[in-house]
Structure formats: structure tokens, C-alpha cells
């Protein structure tokens, strides 16, 4: 194996990305258009102890079943051969024509989470992901297509953020099953901070940056909860479900001043 490319300032991440890019290129061949890094590695505030390595692979067309099988096996092997970083890869494979669509694509796409490939439809997160791709996307290989993505307006970001809050997070007030996971608890707290930040500013920043802003500008009541979420790592317990539910309720209450956007 040759010299590892310095994609980031983290040697372990670079080693994984080097293998990932090589594997994807070998499997997709002429189907490969671009490979991007999104998330905190692109936006900022990457946490070695807890952050995922978010990616997006752009292909010429929708992938055939046999190619998806090769990708599924490849991601499984990445986790097996790199247990520290392999299961941090999270992302999707989509065809390049989808970048021009404002609404989420109807067809399921190959989606990777903790080394497992599933065929899932995009939800409202599609618009946020395209926004992050256009503004912050870090290209690892191939053609840069970000200029083909139409500008996403502030109100569109706020509107889709409201939909995610009401459709995904609000049901957890009564159905707390996802919140029994410590990692998901920390994720929920920081996600609420980013919801509040996006509704206020009409832009998307890293979860830690949003959390720091919420601590500074809003009620001190949540400081302890937010601090614990910021410091959380994968070997730590969280166990603050009741407080998280209250924080979700607070975020919903805060969001009501923007509900007119849902009527547009």
C-alpha cells in the first residue's frame, strides 16, 4: 500500500478514508462520479471520541443489485479490519441526477450506518444534506458537482428543520425507546441545539457550535445537560432521559414562533 493521502488532520481517519476511496473506486469503476466528506469533518468540530465520518458517493446512475452487494460486503470488511474507525463511516450512495431535485428522491438509496448497508428513502434530512454538501462538502475523489445544486433559501432550511422536529423528535416525548441508548441521548441534546440554531439563524453549523450558542444566548437551565452532551464519548453513560424529553418540549415551544413557515 502506498502513502496515505492527508485528507484530514487525523492519521487514523486518513487511513480509513484511503482504503474506503480505493475500495469504492474499484467496485464502482466507471459508475463513480464523486466522493465527498460531509458532517463535522467538513463543517468543523470533529470529535475523535464520538463523531461519525459522514460521506456521500455520487454515481452516474442508480446502482444494480450486484454492485450493492459488493458495497455491502466492502463496508462489513472495513469494520472488521478497522474496528476503531470502520463503524464510524455513515453515508449514502446516490445518482448524480438526484442533486438537481429539491424534494427527497422517491427511490431508496444504499445507506451505510455502523458498517451495515440498508436501502432507505431519504426524508426531510435530504435538503439539509444538500445544503451542507454545497456549502461545506469536501471532495475526496472525482468531479465536483456542487455548482449544480441550487441555492437553498433560509426559509426552506427552517421549514425542513421544523418538519424534522415535529415528525422525528416530537414522537419521542411519548415513545422513548430510541432514547435508552446513551449515544442517542447525547445526539438528541446536540440535535435540539442545532434545531434551535437553524431556526434562529437560517443556516446549518456543527452541533457543538450550535450547542455553545444555545448555552450563551438562551436559558442557563440546560447548561449541565448540554455540557454533558458535548463531553460525551462512546465509553460513557448518559442516563438523562427525563431531562432530554423536557429539552425536546422546550425546543418545540421555541419553534412555535416559526410555525407560519409550515403554511407557506
UniProtKB/TrEMBL annotation:
Transmembrane segments: none
Protein name (database record): Adenylyltransferase AadA C-terminal domain-containing protein
Keyword Transferase among UniProt keywords: yes
Species classification: Bacteria, Bacillati, Bacillota, Clostridia, Halanaerobiales
Cross-referenced Pfam families: AadA_C, NTP_transf_2
InterPro entries cross-referenced by the UniProt entry: AadA_C, NT_sf, Polymerase_NTP_transf_dom
Keywords: Transferase
GO molecular function: nucleotidyltransferase activity
Gene3D superfamilies: Beta Polymerase, domain 2
Signal peptide limits: none
UniProt keyword annotation of Protease present: no
Every Adenylyltransferase AadA C-terminal domain range: 184-242
Coiled coil: none
Occurrences of domain Polymerase nucleotidyl transferase (ranges): 23-69
Native source organism of the sequence: Orenia metallireducens
